[in-house]
Design brief:
By secondary structure, the chain is of the alpha/beta class. The protein is 39% helix and 19% strand. The protein has a six-stranded mixed beta sheet with strand order 3-2-1-4-5-6, with helices on both faces. α5 runs parallel beside α6. The longest helix has 21 residues. The protein is globular and about 45 Å long.
């Protein structure tokens, strides 16, 4: 795991013309996203206001680099983590005793789909229902053709829009990114990252190593420097399939718990 990262990283200042051009480009992209971003609504409360301790958006990579093995790892990992005793305990011991969860898959700009719309989880039965939807509707990795590249900036922008539209109140709002690649499509990451942080959102990540990863430039370092941000933000990097589920479970305990003593130490999972 890479420890908490609070400083902004990214390119230096641009000229006024460059800044204006980038702003116009981003506004156009966000306007387009209004038509394809996942719609935030409550899946299990019939439109009622969702008052929760924490609202978490799972932004899961389903770009062309996500093969069936990794797709299964992400889908099953999130479903298993949501129903684990550690997560249920963390949820029920909070102030309200409920969290809000949404799960969407993303790749290049304009390619995103909702798997689980905003759902209120207040106990094991709610968690099992949400996990069932993820297992049934989540990406399998078999139909990857035409999905394009990896746009982390688009993932952050869609996650931010979902949190903007969260149909209730949450004391903490988190964008939780799972990916096996750097931003290589769409807009730069930094403006998206800074916009989400400015809204008070936390961006955490789970960086999935690839077989050909450069040991000198691990993906987790990229996410720590350029992607995560906000209050107590962190990135974790699993070493294998079993470690992915364990690491994700520990990460979710940190995200959904309002007890600061439960946050993962900078040295990583034990």
């Amino acid at each position: 795991m890479v420890g908490r990262h609070h400083q902004e990283s990214g390119p230096g200042s641009h000229s006024g013309t460059g800044q204006r051009a980038n702003s116009l480009l981003r506004l156009a992209a966000l306007a387009a996203m209004a038509f394809w971003a996942p719609t935030a609504h409550a899946a299990n409360v019939d439109g009622a206001v969702l008052n929760v301790d924490v609202a978490v958006v799972f932004a899961v990579d389903f770009s062309s680099s996500i093969d069936p093995k990794i797709a299964d790892l992400q889908r099953e990992g999130h479903a298993a983590a949501l129903t684990s005793p550690e997560i249920i305990s963390a949820i029920t011991q909070n102030y309200i005793g409920c969290i809000g969860v949404a799960y969407f898959e993303w790749s290049s700009p304009g390619h995103s789909r909702t798997v689980l719309p905003w759902t209120r989880i207040c106990g094991l039965e709610d968690a099992k229902a949400a996990a069932s939807v993820i297992r049934t509707n989540g990406d399998t990795g078999y139909l990857r053709r035409g999905r394009g590249g990896t746009s982390v900036s688009a993932a952050i922008d869609v996650g931010s829009l979902l949190l903007d539209r969260f149909p209730g109140n949450a004391m903490k709002k988190v964008i939780d990114i799972s990916s096996n690649g750097e931003n290589n499509d769409g807009l730069p990451v930094q403006p998206s990252r800074q916009n989400a942080i400015a809204k008070g959102y936390t961006i955490n990540a789970i960086a999935i190593p690839t077989d050909d990863e450069d040991p000198g430039q691990p993906l987790a370092s990229y996410f720590a420097q350029s992607v995560i941000g906000g209050s107590q933000a962190f990135v974790i990097s699993p070493t294998g399939p079993r470690d992915y589920i364990t690491a994700l479970r520990r990460k979710l305990v940190t995200e959904v718990s309002m007890n600061v003593d439960r946050h993962i130490p900078a040295t990583g999972p034990q």
